[in-house]
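Late entry, written up from scratch paper. The run itself happened at the end of the previous shift, but nothing got recorded in the book at the time, so transcribing now.
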Amino acid sequence: MADSPQHLHNPCLLDTNEQTPAKVWELLRRNNAFRYVVERLEAKWQVEPIVQGDLAVLDSRVSGHSQIGRGIFITAGCFSADGIAAHERLRPSAVIGIDGQDLYYLLERALPLDEVFRRKLRWLVETGHFHHPIREFMTELEKHQ
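Output as recorded:
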């Protein structure tokens, strides 16, 4: 999947063709992504931004099970800025966010998923912010490959 005009115009959108969800699921399974005490995984393959209500539902399901459990929210699109702000004001999140741009970098650059999860989880614990875009630490990841 090369950079297309759509990706350049809206970098948080991932191609939503039928093969992409299967590729993402295989990437998660192959890399043993669920060893990070993941209670729930939710994926929304939609172009519309994910709003605070969607995040709150997953967060409450995860928080209701355990204090250390985490949820992963994957979207082919992006998280709305209002949704992120509202969600993070409530309390520390139990959800790790992965958006379309993150998925694009994971699939196209073959980034190590275990290291991406480790960094996203650490960011969540240290800052309380559930979404740490891969583009912010991609250069460091590529140096260590």
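The longest strand covers residues 38-44.
(Scratch paper discarded after transcription.)
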